[in-house]
Amino acid sequence: MNDSYTTTFTVPSTAAEVTDAITDPRAWWMTDIAGDTRQVGDEFSFEVPGVHYSRLRVTDLIPGELVVWEVVDGKVQFVADQDEWTGTRIRFAISSTDSGTTVRFTHEGLRPTDECYDACSGAWNLYAGASLRDLLVTGTGQPSSNPDEVTFQESARSSR
Question: What is the dihedral angle through the alpha carbons of 119, 125, 131, 134, rounded to the nearest 10 degrees?
Fold first, then answer.
């Protein structure tokens, strides 16, 4: 049984457009990402000082089908086990449908029993569930540029 965080949505975009959007996380997740994000082996990172740091590696990239990032180093500083993200995988399964393209986003290893689950799943609802979808539907995402994390975490929790 997979109890990792998952969200799914369908957009009126091609699978190629979806792949392009996913591999540009600056447009829908974090504007302050350092590094490359578009090829297998690329590594990128972001930091919200005092709150969260992650370094990710693109491990799988099949255009129009699959994008996978492994969290090779992660520090979630607002929980006791700050390494909860390290070793987890962020997976985007992409499939064409009659009405467009379906994206199944899963953060493998982010489970309801994790201390950061409420805040982290709320953040994924905002970024993967809304900002990425909006980027694909309207051409504009809502990436973070290092928000006030107290306010951000409160809004992430209340959006659940």
Answer: -160
Q: By the 8 A CB rule, do 104 and 122 touch?
A: no
Element (H, E) at 39: none
Are 88 and 109 spatial neighbours (Cβ–Cβ below 8 Å)?
Answer: yes
Identify the CATH class of 5-158: alpha beta
The Cα–Cα gap between 97 and 56 comes to 29
3-state secondary structure labels for all residues of 2-38:
CCCEEEEEEECCCHHHHHHHHCCHHHCCECCCEECCC
CB-CB contact of 63 with 16 (8 Å): yes
Spatial distance between the Cα atoms of 156 and 34, rounded to a whole number of angstroms: 24
CA distance 59 to 67: 8
Q: pLDDT for 83-124, tens place per residue?
A: 888 999 999 999 999 999 999 999 999 999 998 888 888 889
pLDDT digits (tens, 9 = 90+) for 120-153: 888 899 999 999 999 999 999 999 865 444 444 4
Partnered with residue 96 across adjacent β-strands are: 101
